[in-house]
Fold:
Amino acid sequence: MMGEDSQGPEQDFCEVWRKSWEAVLSRLGTNPPGVSFSEAAAAASPPSGKDAMKAAIRFSGGGTLKGDLLWVVEKPVVLQLGQLLVSEPFDPAVEVTERHRDALADLLRQVADHAATMWKEKNGGGTELSFQPYSGVEPASLHSYVFKMYAGNASELSLRLHLTEELYKGLAVVQSAAGETDDQAAGPTPALPHNIGLLLDIEMEAAIRIGEKEMLVRDLQTLMPGAVVELEQMVNEPASLYVAGRKVARGELVIVDGNFGLRITEVASVNQRVELLKF
Structure:
């Protein structure tokens, strides 16, 4: 088992995921969940066909941290985790349904959100983990890790995490940059406006922008109910939060008590937010 005492940014990255799995499973009532990971002996190709479930999560962050990772969950584990998540009695004879697959996808999103927050706290910079449907195209080179966990009444569950070469190499760069940032942490802090106390209760207009598009006047003239305006932004790209016309954060759209909300994944620097307060 690898853990916090392991050396190397890739082990630190996996440790963040291990802790995130434990935290999310604990919230789901699996007490206490046990999660461990180890490097796979060989980067075997992810399984394919009806007997496998593949969930891909694209990882992108600030600086040079970019690339893809792929969680591979085989059919028996999909069933066990799915039954746990939808509160069904554990029954290995039950057929895997879309309900089980959707529940697993939602679980992966929760773990990814937790991991992104932990990685950002640990290394700084913009960090984002966004869920992507699996395309079926395998990267040329993969670094693989096996995660083993106990959840509820199920037997030991085994999941495989694949990192692309781009992401694998980028982890070291990000960790190095984080070290340099820590060395500079004692530097001067941007000065807040002297009248900050008078500003705290001022209401400022906040807007979430999910995309934009330039349109010709003739197109505006022909708009009518039922027309579709296609935005220049993919559905899986993060939305932006603007305050007083300035972008201060990005995140993913969520539903909260029937209303739209924005789960923040990246926020503007202190300097930028100080500038926002200068009228």
Remarks:
- Residues 1-6, 181-187 have pLDDT under 50 and may be disordered.
- The chain has two domains: 9-182, 196-276.
